[in-house]
Amino acid sequence: MIKLNEIEKFYPSGACRTYVLRRINLEIHEGDFLTIMGPSGAGKSTLLGILGMLDASWNGEYFLYEESVHKLNQKARSELNKRYIGFVFQSYHLLDSLTVYENLELPLTYRNVKKQERESLVADALDRFRIVGKKDLFPNQLSGGQQQLVAVARAVVGNPKLILADEPTGNLHSAQAVEIMELFKKLNHEGTTIVQVTHSEKNAEYGSRIINLLDGWMM
Fold first, then answer.
1. Which residue of 62, 77, 82, 197 pairs with 53 in a disulfide if CB–CB is 3.0 to 4.6 A?
2. What percent of the chain has pLDDT above 70?
3. Exposure pattern of 28-53 as b/e (b: 16+ CB <10 Å)?
4. C-alpha closest to that of 24 among 40, 36, 41
5. How many whole angstroms separate alpha carbon 33 and alpha carbon 207?
6. Which sequence spans correspond to the domains of the chain?
7. What band does 66 get if pLDDT is binned at 50, 70 and 90?
8. Among residues of the chain, what percentage have pLDDT more than 90?
9. What's the pTM?
């Protein structure tokens, strides 16, 4: 599904370079539940941003379904992102001015999904995540756990092949964290490939593979 060859990311620092990622070689197969771990500053979120095509400034080769991402312009990468990837952020990234329903519908409008199909997909997501009663509420009317539930629902509403989750339970208490992780486990069992960044060993246990980063290197 994904193959990374010699991925590197650095920032100029005077006459030198400060590397965030060094010579990352990684394969992710369909159906994997991969966990990326390491201390703060190890490059975990940077690697996730590259996988999600949110970061265009890096060196190396990135293949997604044999598509040469490293050769594509930003518009083409954005199209790939919309077609295959759902992203879940620690800080939810819901739009405060939109209702739950509208937040779920938004990524489908970006993909030019027709109105009738959008309505069907959003209705399915609301039902699947048991948030039908929240559909007309705004994010600031929800608890943290409810907001993250909506964020996960938004990530999967278009049935992506890959979910990228950056510390998805970092702002939640333990019971809410378990609910989110059980949800990821269920999605993975249904065939969705998941890559999560986490500091939590408990969250890592939900996955099938773990890689560790240290100072930008894969250990």
1. 77
2. 100
3. beeebbbbbbbeeebbbbbbbbbbbb
4. 36
5. 5
6. 2-218
7. confident
8. 73
9. 0.91
